[in-house]
Each structure stands twice: as structure tokens, then as C-alpha cells.
Amino acid sequence: MISYYVLSILSILLYLYSFFPIAKINTSSPSFHNQTNFNLTPLSEPTIDRLVLVVIDALRYDFVNPENMPYLSSLSKNNGCSSLVKVESPTVTLPRIKALTTGSVPQFIDVVLNLVRVDSVEDSFLHGAVKKGKKVVFYGDDTWLKAYSDLFLRSEGTSSFFVNDFSEVDDNVTRNVYNEIALKDWDIMILHYLGLDHIGHIYGPFHSLIQPKLQEMDLIIKTIHRNVNSDGKKVLFAVTGDHGMKDSGGHGGTTYSETHVPLVLNGIECENDKIDQIDIPVIFSSLLGLEFPKNSIGKLSMNLLKKSLTKEKLLLFYYYNVLNLQNDNNLCPKFNKSIKYHQDFLKSNSNSSFIKSLKLYKSCLSDLNQKLIRKSIEQYDSGLIISCSALLFCFTSCFLYTFTQSTYKIKFKDSAVIYFVVMLTFLLQLNQFLSSLLCFLIISTVIYQIIIGSKYLKLNIKTIVMIIFSLNIVHGVSMASSSFIEEEHQTWYFYFSSLLLTITIKSIFFDNKSSKYMFMTNVLMLIIFRVMRKLNQTGDKWSHLPDLGQFFKNNYDYLRLYYVISLLLIFYCCKKIQKSKHYFTFLILTLIFVLKFYLNNPDLGKLIWFLIILNLIQSTTTKNCIENLITTFMLISTLLLRPHNIVLPPMLIFLSTIISKQLLSKETFIIAHLWLGTAMYFVQGHSNSLASIDIASGFVSLNDYFPPIVTFQVLCHTYCLPILSHLLVLRKFNDTSTWNLFILQRLWIVTVTFFIAFVLRQHLFIWSVFAPKVLIEASHNIILLIEIFIHHLVLILGSIFIHNKTSLKI
């Protein structure tokens, strides 16, 4: 069955490939040439001499106020303005830099590219500037250097991923600014500061370090602004953020604080406005006298430009903006009429013709902009999506039959037929009708055989029907609701709390022995689980509310006491699981190092990892390798988890112990632990928003950005509790049927999620809610496959070592 799951993962990857294509909009960008009788020469005449663009990473809109940034706030009141900028999802750096420079809507797959690689951007307002002979300098986030490697006259990058650095990344930028102010041979200077974003990842937006960092940025802005205007050149000074910051810290989601940033302009007369981030490149291009980026779908802002441009030039830019968005498949019926009024204005200088022409141009821009945005995010490969969904449905059905040990043999259980169906479906996916027909026949056959064959299944189907088909199916169907996805943690809290309550009731009425003891223990576990849910507010609607994690961050003395108690619980659990004498010394030593590491001695992190790896190697050389893996993973969690979350692994062990004593059925035991692991995943603070991924965990014990180690540590941090729950199951039931049920639960959810995401691809929240859920569910399945391979590898290595050891003794 492992081969089936590998094929399932391939189907998942193909679905992602078809659902998140790396595509471009092919808008035919006209040059400054005459398609009417208009004189287009004024378009290339710049209104400003220089542009200074300061990007403060994670500068949310409410950060800019007189208390935090007094000088920046004053800039918008004197020869400037402050606008509210709407940022599209995903709110991570690479897509936002593309939006800021190209005016296009980056694909959601750029989230992955942001972590893996950065392709060179082919066209932007920076390309237009260099083409016109302007000189561009850059300092800051090295993502810019990867995207625009050959455009900068001078540059220096800093890594955006090393989030433990709050000051050096900004000092390196400012150090170069003083040199550029002295040289003054540049036309565009871009500065991307990272310190604020790094503080947000570690501590969140309400920490005491945030305001000093904002005030530091304000002083830097004051210095730059006063010096770049010293030589009489007309300089546009612009300050903005690439994205905002979630109330709980981090970014990547769609909350208001993540998707709204300021744009403060100084150097031109303008009025405050509300614009989209993709509008910024065409606004800069119009002021610099540049051609618009060829893939730009942004639109000009009347409030930002009307006081800086003459009426004639303003209409010309609006005409050019509409011309830039039009192509043979995307026309504006009002365009010709707006041109007529435009011509009337040039002949008669009639204010009425100017207003009518401008109104029609703006209407065309709005219509074309919305059409192109939809087109840019709806480039699906429907045939491949349908094929992958059908195959995942088939594989899910196969695992269901295998787990329930059906005596009714179905055709799809035969390996040759499975591989044939896979090949045929992918071959026919080019023809959507044939592919859809084949998928319909496959699904209909599987459903028919499930219904007809159920009477041949063994009695444990009652357990499966009761638990999987009632609760897990309800959970799967709930994925059709964006609110249920955003607040999925509530589903799992309810499921697991209900399970604990059911066990408690059972201990009162049905257990004859130790009922009072079990009842008190169960009640205690219910209370503990309820308290743990308050450690980290998660989800979307209530994530801004205070939680215990925030309380401990603000009360360091309580946090230290709580941390020591958590380590003692870790020690107790590890010692109960691993009882050998040499392990006692190893455990004491490791936890002492962990405590010293927590008390600001980061160099110990490498030593702790060395000890953990030694323990992991030792775990493959004994018969009790699962127990050793459990303790190893608990020690990894002490190193990577936030201090207030270190109590979660021992609490998971205690909850597992309680339910293990009262759930005798293998199926209920496994499913209970799956629910436990999922509930604890959300208790840790995760959600279906990319902003809940704790990037800071990847840099524990590191002094620089090393992608493989960072990725490994982030994954360990994210999935440590679900993996720990899986290991606790394998400790008792280490067989194929256990893995089959793990796979079955994951495949069911990912299949339903993929199907719903495709059906609701026109939904308002498809890219803000459903698309992140698709990525997260795909990630869950890939991690489970890695678990399977590592588990089998450890067993193989252990058996080889034990066999060789036995042979040597003989």
C-alpha cells in the first residue's frame, strides 16, 4: 500500500501544479507611439528628477502615527500625502516585491518560490528606468538582488530569513546610504529595511521592541530625507511596507493588519487616497516619464497625480494606462467614446469634456483591471485537476477497504489495474470531456462497490462508520465553508473535548474498577486541555485576543518558573519511557544545556543538537527504537518550541496515557490519537493561514541563514506534536493497518479539500482561504510520507544492527 500512497502524493503534486500555475499575463504594452492624433511626447517628460523608495518590511498601516514615527507623519502634511495601500494575498516578500515593481498580481505559487528560489523578473518600472539611462542603487533584502540582478549600479543585500537579527540588517543598509548621499550620481535609490519584520516574527507587533524600532526608522528617514533634497533636484520621497504584520506576529495571511500598509509620499502635491499595491509602479512610471511595465495591470490614482500633472498630461497618461491594459481579448467599449471627449478637450479646452473623458478612462481602467486580475489567478488546468481529484478518491477508497479488511475483492485493489487507471487518466487529461467521463465512471463504480460490499465487511466497520463516516466526513464537508477553514481549530477542540467527556462519562457508569480515580483524572485532563487552548489564540476572528503566551512574554519571572516546571515534566515523561541507566545521565545533561540555552546562551544550541543526534543514532541500534524516537522528539521540541509551549509535549503524553487505559479498541485508540495530535497542532498556535508558520524556529542555534537546516527545523517545529502522537500509536500498534488509517484520514481530507477548492474556484476567498488550505493539506500528506519512509528506514537499520550484533556474539 505504500506504493499507492506514493502515487497519491504524485497526484497531489500534479494537482498543485495545475491549480497554482507559474503563469504570466500577456498584455501588449504599447510604447510611446501615436495610435491617434494625440501628441504623446509629454508622457516621456519626467515630473520628478529622483525617486527614493524606502520599504520597511512588515510596516502595517497603524504603525505610522505621531507617537511612533513623528517625522514620517509630518511628511504627509507638507508637500505630500499618506495613502492606504491594499496588499493582495499572499502577504510574503517575493510576491509583494513583484507587485511593487511590475504592477502584476503574483501567482500564489510564489509563496514556495519565496523560500526555494527567486526567478529573475523580466520587466518592471526599474527596467524602464535603466532602459532610459537612469541609474538605480539598492540596499537591503537580497530578494531584490535575485530578482533584479543586472539592474543596479551599486547594491548590497542582507538575508531576509535570518530573523534573529534585529539591528545589523538595518545598520548595513544605513551605512551605505551615507555613501550614496555623498555621491548623488543615482536617479533611483531603493532601501529595504528588515529589522521590524524580524521583531514581528519573534515577538509580535505589540512587544516593547516595536516602538523603539519604529522610532529608529523614523530617525533614518529624517536623515535621508533632509540630505537627498540638499542639491536642488526635485526628489520624490516614498515610504511604504511590502506587507503588514499579523496581530499574533508573522505574516502571510489575509487579516486587515497584514494586507494594509501605508504609502507616504513627499516631494509632490497630492491628496490622500486608497490604492492597490499593484497601482504603485504605474504611478512611479508616470512621474519618472517611463513606459509602463508590460505586465502591469495597475491603474493611475487621480488624487496622487492631479496636482502634479497638467490636465493635458493627466488625460494622456490615463489614455496610455487604458491602452496598456487592452488587448484583443480584453477591450473596453467606452474607450472610443473617452478618446472622442479627450480630442474635444484638446480642441476646445472644455472642462466638461475633460471631466467626461477622465471619468470614462477611469471606468475603463476599473473594468479592465478587474478582468485582468481574475484572468491572472484563474489559469487552471481543469482536466488535470479533475483527474488528480478522481485518483485521490480512488486511493482513499483503496485504503478504506484495506484497513477494514474487506473480504469483498474490488477490481481497483489489483495493482496492475491501479497503475493502468493512473496512466490512462493522465493520458486522457488533455481531453477534458474524456477525462471527466472516465473519472465519473471510476467514482460511480467505487461508490457502488462500497455500498454493495459493505455487508461483507467485518464487524469493526461499525467503529469506522461511527467515527470516520460520521465525524471525519462532517469535518471534511465543513471545508466547503471559508469560516470553518479559518476556525478549523474549533472543530478539533470540540471533537477531542467530546472524546474526553465521553471517556469521563464511561468511567462513571460503565467502569466497575477505580471509577472514582478515573473520573477525577479525566476531569483533570478536561481542565488541563481547556487551559492549554488558551496558550495561543489562533484562527482568524479571535487571534487578536490576549492569551497565556502573551501573558508569559510580558511577565518574564513567571515564564522562567513555568519553563522550569515544563522541563521537569519533560524529564519525568522521558524517564518513564526510557528507563535505562545511561539514559538518565544523558537526559539530565541535555536538559541542563537546554535551560542554559534558554537563558541567553545560543552557542549551546549546536551542542544540544549534537547530543540529540547521538540519541537518535542510538535509537536505531536497539529493539525499543520507537521509545527512543519518542524521547528524541521530545528533546527536539524543548529546543525548538517557544518557551510557553514546551509544556505541550508532556501534556500530550499524559492525555495519551489516560485515553490509552480506557480505549480498548484498536481503531478508537488510533483515531483518538489522530484527533489528539491534530488538536495539539492547533493548540500550539497553528492555523490554516501561512502567517502561523513560525519562521523564527528555523534559526534556533544558527548564526547565519542555511536553507536545509532552517527548513528542517521549521518542519520539526510545525509538526512535532502530530508526529509525537503518531509515535505513541506506533509504540502500541506498530503494523501496516495503523499506517493505513493514518493515511486514510489524511487522504480523505486532502481529497475533499482539493475537490471543494476546484468547485469554489470563483469564490471570493479562493486565494485568501481555500488556496492556503490546499497548500497546507498537501504539506500534511508529504510530511506523513516522510514519516513513513523514516520509520521504515529506522526499523531496517535497527534490524541490521541487531542482527550483526547477534552474529558477532555467536
Topology, pairings included?
Elements: H1 2-19, E1 50-56, H2 70-75, E2 80-86, H3 93-102, H4 110-116, H5 125-131, E3 136-141, H6 143-147, E4 154-158, H7 168-183, E5 188-193, H8 195-203, H9 210-228, E6 235-240, H10 256-259, E7 260-266, E8 274-276, H11 280-288, H12 302-305, H13 311-325, H14 335-348, H15 351-376, H16 382-403, H17 415-428, H18 432-453, H19 461-477, H20 482-486, H21 488-509, H22 515-532, H23 548-554, H24 556-577, H25 581-598, H26 604-619, H27 625-640, H28 648-660, H29 666-683, H30 707-732, H31 736-759, H32 766-809
Parallel strand pairs: 1-5, 1-6, 2-8, 3-4, 3-5
Antiparallel strand pairs: 2-7, 6-7
Helix pairs in contact: 1-16, 1-31, 1-32, 7-9, 13-14, 13-15, 14-15, 16-17, 16-18, 16-31, 19-31, 21-22, 21-29, 22-28, 24-25, 24-27, 24-28, 25-26, 26-27, 27-30, 28-29, 28-30, 29-30, 29-31, 31-32
Provide the structure class: mainly alpha
Tally of helical segments: 32
What is the architecture of the domain at 48-308 at the second tier of CATH?
3-Layer(aba) Sandwich
Low-confidence sequence ranges? 25-29, 406-416, 447-465
CATH-assigned fold name of the domain at 48-308: Alkaline Phosphatase, subunit A
How do the strands of the widest beta sheet line up side by side? Answer: 4-3-5-1-6-7-2-8
Overall spatial form: globular
Distance between the termini: 37 Å
Sheet with the most strands, sense and barrel status: 8 strands, mixed
Average residue-wise pLDDT = 80
Number of strands: 8
CATH class of the domain at 48-308: Alpha Beta
User: What's the CATH H-level homologous superfamily of the domain at 48-308?
Assistant: Alkaline Phosphatase, subunit A
- Over all CA atoms, what is the radius of gyration? 30 Å
* Residues in β-strands, percent: 5-15%
| Helicity range | 55-70%
